[in-house]
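Sequence of HAD family hydrolase (Chryseobacterium herbae).
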Amino acid sequence: MKTDIDIHNHCHFSFDLWLTLIKSHPEFKTKRVELFSSFFNIDKTIAEVAKTVKYYDDLCNTINEVTGGNIDTFEMYLLILGSLDVDVKQLDKEKLDGFYLKSEELFLEYKPVVIFENIKEFFDQIKNQGKTVNILSNTGFIKGRTMRKFLIQEELDQYIDFHIYSDEINISKPNPLIFQEVKNNLKDRDLPMHRILHIGDNPVADYKGAKDFGFSAHLLKH
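Predicted 3D structure, token representation.
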């Protein structure tokens, strides 16, 4: 992906993750559906499980964007399982934790594809000018702690001054409080808002959210 991001007029760069820096491995979602089916002994076809997983993934993302809150990963699991006629009252947190660990292993095996062309060179350019970088990502099935592991594996973590994930603070973009969190984490508290650039692919959560808060914003178009 080539961009026309202006790095000279900004001092801090905030990056969305999904469909900005990375996208899912082409096989990951299929493998996760198979895991869902076998782990919870779901008595439905794989196609039906896949459709339900996608429905609740999209719905929960939309709810988070509209309300500015954050539906927990385990709540998403329970909505999916309840819809697939699994008796969720028979489940406990330990079982859900066990599934999350398995899905994290799967995620790190079928790891996301980096789509932002020459991202390390781009980060190098920013850091060599003494500027700073953060990740600001809404999360769903994949928690922030797992994204950190992935970014370490990809040797991208070294460029990132701080991470903000919606599941860790219970706030989602475009809620202004999540952009305030970026401001709160900056070493230079007096940095003018327009010198902070948020970069993302979502016109509402990323572009409008950052603009409404007072940051500069760059919308990536695929």
